[in-house]
Amino acid sequence: MTWLITGGAGYIGAHVVRVMAEAGERVAVLDDLSTGVPGRLPAGVPLVTGSTLDRALLDRTLADLGVTGVVHLAARKQVAESVEQPLRYYRENVHGLTVLLEAVAAAGIGRFLFSSSAAVYGTPDVDLVTEDLTCAPVNPYGETKLAGEWLVRAAGAAHGISTACLRYFNVAGAARPELADTGVSNIVPMMFERVTGGEPPRIFGDDYPTPDGTCVRDYIHVEDLASAHLAVARRLAEPAGSGDLTVNIGTGQGVSVREMAGLILEVTGRTGLVPRVEPRRAGDPARVVGSTELIGKELGWSARHGVRAMVESAWDGWCLRHPEARRG
Questions:
Q1: Which of 59, 125, 154, 203 maximizes the CB count within 10 A of its CB?
Q2: Measured between alpha carbons, how far is residue 276 from residues 254, 255, 258, 271, 279 in Å?
Q3: Residue 167 forms beta bridges with which residues?
Q4: What percent of the chain has pLDDT over 90?
């Protein structure tokens, strides 16, 4: 098998590339480098710079590299931005996927793994989110991920492609400091940015029906997320690995925003700061924690890292780029 990993120079993508390459899989990367960093890639991994919207480039790449399977991670992924720029999100996330699937089908490629999101569930009112729960996304980002799942399954059924959709929960941490998340749109780097500047982390709402009044989320270490991709890719590569698989990728454990803020203050050595409570943000569900029973049953996979390891490894990466943060 030769796997093409779209978005493979990004935060999550680079972890997937490294885990798969280190496990002996042949991998190549397609990335437009809008957020990707070529230096994240292991030596010897081919990098094609370009977009999934470019059909001619896709056709050449799939043929020249002898691609037999695709791991599709390339996408826009910021919720607030998707509300402001829905047309851009539908173009890149849905139309880009359509063009990629057309190229995959034309090339006769039989394996396709799609990076989805727990955002497809919207605001579920259950303790544990299972894969058979009705999906009701509440923002354009989540809508594009759900539409992407529909496209992937339909193309798989029509063209004999074995497919998998991985619904990520909240991703954090880093396998190595140089691979850490360089953005500040997720809760951990957002809080790092605040405490580095001497400001308290913010908590949006403390009157939710949860044990401490703050939202509860499921956090997954990016290294565990990458290992899940390897496990699913290998399942798809098996002769019996046909059909479609849709699974949650999380820990099944809930962590409140207040608990996360306290852990971040402890790890960063800013325990003198007191988290600041601000008004709720529209659309934030009280609790979103994923059941991991299905992926455990199907693949024997489970997460290995806890939330402290996520925060500590993410902090090492943050300090690599912001040396003044460690001194503070």
A1: 203
A2: 21, 18, 10, 13, 10
A3: 116, 248
A4: 92
Where are the domains positioned within the chain? 2-171+219-249, 173-217+252-327
Q: Rounded to an integer, what distance in angstroms lies between the CA atom of residue 186 and that of residue 282? A: 17
pLDDT at 66 over 70: yes
Question: In whole angstroms, what is the distance from residue 114 CA to residue 74 CA?
Answer: 10
The pairing of beta strand 276-278 with beta strand 244-249? unpaired
pLDDT at 321 over 90: yes
Domain 2-171+219-249 belongs in CATH node 3.40.50.2000 = no
Determine whether 83 is exposed, middle or buried from the number of CB atoms within 10 Å of its CB (0-12, 13-18, 19+): middle
- The type of residue at 54 is D
Packing angle between helix 11-22 and helix 222-237, nearest 10 degrees? 50
Contact 111, 161 (CB under 8 A): yes
CATH code, residues 173-217+252-327? 3.90.25.10
Active-site hit among 141, 168, 208, 219: 141
Beta-carbon contacts of 124 under 8 Å, excluding residues fewer than 6 positions away, are 133, 285, 288
pLDDT in tens, 275-298: 999 999 877 889 999 999 999 999
Q: What is residue 284's predicted lDDT score, i.e. its pLDDT?
A: 85
- CA–CA dist 284, 209 (Å, integer): 12
Q: Are 252 and 296 in contact (CB under 8 A)?
A: no
Measured N-to-C along each axis, helices 257-268 and 187-196 cross at an angle, to the nearest 10 degrees, of 50
Is there a catalytic annotation at residue 121?
A: no
d(CA 302, CA 285): 25
